[in-house]
Design goal:
The protein has one helix at 66-72; strands at residues 3-7, 10-16, 28-37, 42-46, 55-58, 80-85, 107-116. With 117 residues, it is mostly beta strands. The protein is globular. The relative contact order is 0.31.
Length: 117
């Protein structure tokens, strides 16, 4: 599939098209997710790993990093996409040391929209 620009610093590649409800600002969204450092595609988090579970958040209201919010607002229930973002749309200059994410790291998330409420 083709990669499209979502906004400056955020791209999306659809892996599996969705046909359910679209994600809108304020939607309660449940996702399965694999997060990776774009350089080397080193995984730092996966909701499908043992002991993990799908992640739920309210879309478009700043509860998650900006690249996630912007990417998810272009998706539909049932869709799986790879969202890639520059460091300023991810964890920025502070990084996320607990997960091994260095400052200003570019990130790639494979997101599956499980449910939109």
């Amino acid at each position: 599939m083709a990669t499209v620009n979502v906004c400056e610093g955020v791209t999306k590649e659809v892996v599996v098209a969705g046909s359910g409800r679209p994600v809108t600002k304020g939607s309660k969204v449940t996702v399965n997710c694999t997060g990776m450092l774009t350089a080397g595609m080193k995984k730092f988090w996966c909701t499908k790993d043992p002991g993990q579970q799908p992640f739920t958040f309210n879309a478009g209201v700043g509860e998650v990093i900006e690249g996630w919010d912007k990417g998810c607002l272009t998706m539909k229930e049932g869709e799986t996409s790879r969202i890639t973002m520059t460091g300023d749309k991810g964890y920025g200059p502070g990084g996320f040391p607990a997960w091994g994410i260095p400052p200003n790291a570019s990130l790639t998330f494979e997101l599956e929209i499980v449910r939109v409420a």
